Amino acid sequence: MERKPKAVFRILMMFGAFTLLVPAAFAATYEYNISGSVDFTGPYAVVMKPIDDTAKIFFQWWNDTKGKELGIKINRKVYETRYDATLVASLWPGILASDKPIAYLGLGGPDVSALMKRLPDDKVPLYCGTATYGFVWMPNQWLFQPRPTYTHEMAGFLSWVRMNKIKDRPIRVAAVSSKAVPAYVDQIDGLTTFAKANPWVQLIGVEWVKPIPVSMVSEIRRLATQKPDFIYIQTNTAHAIGTIRAQKELGIHIPVVVSMHNGLIQCARASGDINLLEGHYEVIAADPCIDMSKEPAVIFETYKKKMGIESEWASLPGLVAAVYTLVFRGVERAARMAGPDKINGEAVYKAMFVEPFTEKDLLGMVPTLTFTKEAPFSERDIKVKIITVKNGKAVMADDNWIPAPPVGKWGKS
């Protein structure tokens, strides 16, 4: 009878030691929602599967790694918005009430135009992988974008052309866009402003077409009479492919300059023929994802096999990886600052301004980003990369990051 208290004491001591050794996996897990837009039925339906698949992969990767380490699980909630600002606006009150999201992941212009004035009151930061728009280039936004404006990116491309290809005269640029989406109009406003401020660039014509045109032969014939050196298209794959096919029909070749979301590989997959993109260009303030040895590609390929996903790694999945990684780094900072049990949209928002996100933080996908409350993108050291298609293969047009020249503001909210 006298030994029982000692035995009980030993048991309690053993149990106490065991609890100290319990792995993080047995610790409390706090769950949060990040909501977002998808477009499987609108103008970006043709590229939505790789976007969606990459999002699934990187959510799972983060939950398995940093999330588990912090005792946090993030649930992904998505809504079909058809790249339509009206639909985003109509869904938003329900999303706020049901998900209580700590962040929202948008597809681009419609999300920005529908939500930008509501976000400060609703205290939910919005992230988009698209380039920024002139109408949101202003202080105190709850919007974060890893890329500058489309005009900054095109300015970087034109600067590269001036240094390497056309040195003795102004560069003549035509454009294809659509008035159906405010962000598309904004891209032309930005390029117009840049050309007016820089006499070495001439914007010699714009054709406004439907978001998904049947044929663009008439429009491209008109632009061709102005003898442009390049055709600027930062809208969608339908415009890019339509422009190139129209050139084939007309027997001409004017290099098209696209962005990542309507980029060379995306157009090749949508058209079924990478040779169609021969001699055209893609420019973006991010890594073009040609090197499969880089960390984001390795993560993608590893989880692709685990999850039975069929999409292929390319520049568009890389863009998705970049913006999702930026969101996750914000959540990690919020967890350190407020505690893993006290994360909300405002905590994530505040965490974005603490210090720069280095290129290493962002898996090498984008240059170091320094966010301030003066702009929704990092205004420091803006750089781009350029790829082209040569002999049926996507290759770097230049191996280096290319500095973008200064771009003046335009647009109003």
List keywords for this structure.
2 domains, 13 helices, alpha/beta, 413 residues, globular, Rossmann fold, single chain, eight-stranded mixed sheet, five-stranded parallel sheet
Number of strands: 13
Distance between the termini: 82 Å
Give the low-confidence spans: 11-26
Q: Strand-residue fraction?
A: 15-25%
Arithmetic mean pLDDT: 92
- By DSSP (H or I, 4+ residues per run), the number of helices equals 13
CATH class of the largest domain: Alpha Beta
Return the CATH architecture of the largest domain. Answer: 3-Layer(aba) Sandwich
Number of domains: 2
Shape: globular
CATH topology of the largest domain: Rossmann fold
Order of helices and strands: HEHEHEHHEEHEHEHEHEHEHHHEEE
Using only CA atoms, what is the Rg?
24 Å
How helical, in percent, are the residues? Answer: 40-55%
Name the structural class: alpha/beta
Full CATH superfamily name of the largest domain? Response regulator
* Main sheet makeup: 8 strands, mixed
